[in-house]
Structures are given as C-alpha cells and as structure tokens.
From TrEMBL:
It is found in: Cell membrane. PANTHER family: SUCCINATE TRANSPORTER SUBUNIT YJJP-RELATED, UPF0442 PROTEIN YJJB-RELATED. Residues 9-244 form the Threonine/serine exporter-like N-terminal domain. Belongs to the ThrE exporter (TC 2.A.79) family. The chain crosses the membrane at residues 110-132, 138-155, 167-185, 191-207, 228-250. The keyword Transmembrane helix applies. The lineage of its organism: Bacteria, Bacillati, Bacillota, Bacilli, Lactobacillales. Pfam families: ThrE. This is Threonine/serine exporter-like N-terminal domain-containing protein. Keywords: Cell membrane, Membrane, Transmembrane, Transmembrane helix. One of its GO terms (molecular function) is transmembrane transporter activity. It comes from Enterococcus dispar ATCC 51266. Its main location: membrane. It is a multi-pass membrane protein. Coiled coil: none annotated.
Length: 251
C-alpha cells in the first residue's frame, strides 16, 4: 500500500542520515518533507540516536527503524538530501526514491582506506606541530597517527565491539610514541600522543550533541553526548594504560 511505502521510504532516508552523523532536526525535516511530497501531510515523526518512529495521524499505519551504526559520512547525507530534492521536484517517483535509497550505502563514493589513513597521519603531524611540537617529531607522528588509525579500523571490523577499537588505537599510539622516543627517533612523547590521537577524538559527535540539545532534542543530544564521552574515556584509558606499563623514565 502507498502509506506503507511512504513510511518505509521516510524511515530508510532517516536511518541513513542518522547512521552517518546528521542532526535530529534535519532528519525529521527530511522525513516529513518526503511524506508531504508523497501526498501525506498528517505524519508524526520521532527521531532518537538509536531508533526512528513515524506514523500517520488518524490511521493504523506506524513503523519504526533501528539505528545500528553511528559514524561520520557526510557524502551519504548529501546523497539523501539530493534524492529528496529530486522527489520534491517530481523528477523521480516514490518507488524510484525507495529503490535509490537502498543503493545509497553501496553506491555512494567514499575515500579508500589508504587515503583515510594518510589523512589521519597528516592531521596528526600538523596538529602536533601546532600544539608545540618540533620538526624532529613530524615524521614519527605521521607514521604513528597512521598506524593508530589503522589499528582502530581493523579492531572494529574484527571484534565489532563498541569503544574497544578506540582503546586499542590509543594504546598503539601511546606505545609507539614511547618507544620511538626511547630509541631516539623522536623527541617528545607528549606532543606525539596529543597529535596522533586527534583523528580519534569524537569532535563531530560532541558538536551534534550540543546542536541537538539546543534545538530541543534532549534525549538524542544526551545519548550522543554520553557516547562521545565514552569514546573519549576509551582513548584516555588507552593512553593511561600505555604510560602505566611503559612510561617509566620518559620525561
């Protein structure tokens, strides 16, 4: 039925946006616009960090969608917005919108792992220098940032356990920083660690948390904020564990 197709399409668009870092108010607005452009204006939507709910007033039609993954991929958010605008302009039908949304996760281009790793290394070494590091630590910080980022990616893929990937990545960064100083390849452990952990810091999640809270979405904002704090705590515990085990004698 049309109502079921409208709800499933709206929830699919909302789920993609929530899984890739969109704000709650933007997700709700997109879902409601799709429903309105499909000819159903009396919809009610409720979006949280872990689930989306949508129903049609004065009817028995209601659906929910779980949000399993939460990452940052603005390209997929742009793709959903583009499809929503095409549907509003009557360039595609509701069924075409539904089918193309199903392909967004597969067809949306993304940077390869090598480019992401190189970017993490570049961010690490430049921020290390900005925070007071020296050129002697530039190359070691680049390499350590790359290795820490790769460690987090593969631990997340192998174990599929929340927050453990950030702990391992931070542990790898701290360990490599300490031993690079001990063997004379680098100069300052603190500057290397500060720079190398920056690609792991959940800055976008914290920003979105505050934006959700300020826009009145207290539940989602609080949930995102707590998740960001757990990520930051996992990074801190990873570094602290490294310093506790191997940090003796390091200035």
């Amino acid at each position: 039925m049309k109502e079921e197709l409208v709800l499933s399409t709206c929830l699919m668009a909302g789920r993609i946006m929530m899984e890739n870092g969109s704000e709650v108010y933007r997700v709700e607005d997109t879902m409601n616009r799709i429903a309105e452009n499909a000819g159903i204006s009396n919809t009610v939507s409720y979006v949280t960090a872990t689930g989306l709910f949508m129903s049609i007033r004065n009817s028995s039609f209601s659906q929910l969608e779980e949000v399993h993954e939460r990452s940052i991929n603005l390209e997929k958010i742009v793709a959903v917005n583009h499809l929503s605008r095409e549907f509003a302009a009557k360039k595609i039908s509701l069924l075409q919108l539904n089918e193309r949304l199903k392909r967004v996760n597969k067809d949306t281009p993304s940077f390869s792992l090598i480019w992401q790793t190189l970017a993490a290394g570049f961010v690490s070494c430049t921020l290390m220098y900005i925070f007071g590091g020296t050129w002697q630590d530039f190359v070691p910080t680049f390499l350590i940032g790359c290795l820490g980022f790769i460690a987090g990616i593969y631990i997340k893929k192998w174990l599929q356990m929340r927050f453990l990937d950030m702990f391992v990545a931070a542990f790898v960064i701290g360990t490599l920083a300490i031993f690079s100083v001990r063997i004379g390849l680098a100069n300052n452990v603190d500057h290397i660690i500060i720079g190398a952990v920056m690609p792991l810091v959940p800055g976008v999640a914290i920003t979105n948390s505050f934006r959700d809270i300020l826009s009145g979405d207290l539940l989602s904002g609080t949930a995102r904020g707590i998740e960001a704090l757990f990520v930051a705590a996992a990074i801190g515990v990873g570094i602290a564990t490294t310093l506790l085990l191997f940090g003796g004698g390091i200035a």
